[in-house]
Amino acid sequence: MKPNPLWELENIFEGATFDDFLFRPQHGVVGSRRAVDLTMPLSRNLNIKTPIVGANMDTVTREKMMKALALEGCFGFLDRNCSIEEQVGRVKYLKRQHSHVIEKPAVLSRRHSVGQAKTIMKVHNVSGLLVESTPGSGILVGIFTHRDLLAAGSDNSAMIGKYMSCLGKLVWAQPGITIEDAEKMMLKHRIEKLPLALKPGRNISGLITMKDLRVAKQKPYSTKDRKGRLLVGATVGAREDFIERAEALIAAEADCVLMDIAHADSDVIQKAVREFRAKFKDFELVCGNIASRDGAKFLMDLGVDAIKVGVGPGRGCRTRLETGAGVPQLQAIREAYLGVKGEIPIIADGGIKNDKDIALAIFCGASTVMLGGMLSGTDEAPGELVEDPASKKKVKIYRGMTSPEAVFDGPEGEDSLEERFNTPAEGQAIKVDYVGSVVDIIKRVRGHLQSAVSYMGHETLMKVHKDFSNAPSKYLIRLTESSRKESFER
């Protein structure tokens, strides 16, 4: 089967989605599926080792989910259904988590009280504070940890200088120390935290913790930046405060911005992307959503770094039901791939019901897959775990971002609350079963995806993506009603 030279949609994809296909197994070459490499491009300049992206929804991806996904080699985009300050705070929090070197550790002066230290430690979710000589001096004189907090007990009014580990007993190092030497030093002195300070003035310049070094060893596939910090994505709109929001997120060191609206093949997005590029030049920008070949080419020509594909396939979306607009998701993925001729990555957003859908999405043209509903019932998803009075099952609430509930909770911005409520909803809130930790979900998906790659006769997902996308009709089998029942009904 020759590659498609005209970049035209193959007939097999017309009106098709995930349950319409199986792929024909090829000769296997891997001894164990665990050896299969799943690394894929998230965008033009960012790669991730497990091609799963947390949906930018307020019931899916916030701090807890983002952290868990990044540690498992995945990625996520923080939602924008909050104030700029709240979103920026989440980015800053995540950039402090599990880095090789904490460049801006929490610092108090020796004259701050134990009560103030408790508050700071709780707000920043840290177990220790570096202590400076006077407020703003930056001169290291000690460290105050959770052990000192226990020793202080209820003595909240006392100064932390009374309980901290003083300079004479403090083990510290200069910036530039290797991670290996830092670990040896901490093991030798049986300490959990190693402050970094410049000689001769002992100016505070960072902190290394044994906890972060352990995580780095346990999860070498984590999604991190060059400084060993978690990679963080965040969402903006395309009107009103989007430039102000993007500027604040970039200043907070977000690694990638997602410009997200329901219909991105539009003049609104064209104007917004051009304004973004004029202000932020080559900063990594993902844009969506579209569902056609022309829409994908339109965004690529605007200079975005990845495209998010899907109009109405998700459980929380009613766009197809209410408007009739949309393209079957696997067809949309294929159209987008052909529209950009494989030149920039595609994020397939929505319609994923099970793990084989993820494999088919990537084989047919997507680089990564965005999950919402599949992650929304996990411990890490925002929202309270409740018991459904009818079924007695534990459930969480999952909602589309244009549902009335999400609109009500959103910040002031593009439209007034009255205007938003006067616009008919294209999203809905639903109950989803509680499924435990997202880590277990990702491990399961990773294993099934590795198996799918092995059935395709390759050692890497990228190689399957290239071969399959080049000639999908060589591998795909379009199912009949009977073969669909045989395959998927159990």
Automatic annotation (TrEMBL):
<keyword id="KW-0630">Potassium</keyword>
<dbReference type="InterPro" id="IPR005990">
    <property type="entry name" value="IMP_DH"/>
</dbReference>
<keyword id="KW-0479">Metal-binding</keyword>
<feature type="binding site">
    <location>
        <begin position="260"/>
        <end position="262"/>
    </location>
    <ligand>
        <name>NAD(+)</name>
    </ligand>
</feature>
<keyword id="KW-0520">NAD</keyword>
<dbReference type="InterPro" id="IPR001093">
    <property type="entry name" value="IMP_DH_GMPRt"/>
</dbReference>
<keyword id="KW-0560">Oxidoreductase</keyword>
<keyword id="KW-0129">CBS domain</keyword>
<feature type="binding site">
    <location>
        <begin position="310"/>
        <end position="312"/>
    </location>
    <ligand>
        <name>NAD(+)</name>
    </ligand>
</feature>
<dbReference type="GO" id="GO:0006183">
    <property type="term" value="P:GTP biosynthetic process"/>
</dbReference>
<dbReference type="InterPro" id="IPR046342">
    <property type="entry name" value="CBS_dom_sf"/>
</dbReference>
<dbReference type="Pfam" id="PF00478">
    <property type="entry name" value="IMPDH"/>
</dbReference>
<feature type="binding site" description="in other chain">
    <location>
        <position position="312"/>
    </location>
    <ligand>
        <name>K(+)</name>
    </ligand>
</feature>
<dbReference type="InterPro" id="IPR013785">
    <property type="entry name" value="Aldolase_TIM"/>
</dbReference>
<dbReference type="InterPro" id="IPR000644">
    <property type="entry name" value="CBS_dom"/>
</dbReference>
<feature type="binding site" description="in other chain">
    <location>
        <position position="317"/>
    </location>
    <ligand>
        <name>K(+)</name>
    </ligand>
</feature>
<dbReference type="GO" id="GO:0003938">
    <property type="term" value="F:IMP dehydrogenase activity"/>
</dbReference>
<protein>
    <recommendedName>
        <fullName>CBS domain-containing protein</fullName>
    </recommendedName>
</protein>
<feature type="domain" description="CBS">
    <location>
        <begin position="101"/>
        <end position="159"/>
    </location>
</feature>
<dbReference type="GO" id="GO:0046872">
    <property type="term" value="F:metal ion binding"/>
</dbReference>
<feature type="binding site" description="in other chain">
    <location>
        <position position="314"/>
    </location>
    <ligand>
        <name>K(+)</name>
    </ligand>
</feature>
<dbReference type="Pfam" id="PF00571">
    <property type="entry name" value="CBS"/>
</dbReference>
<feature type="domain" description="CBS">
    <location>
        <begin position="164"/>
        <end position="223"/>
    </location>
</feature>
<comment type="similarity">
    <text>Belongs to the IMPDH/GMPR family.</text>
</comment>
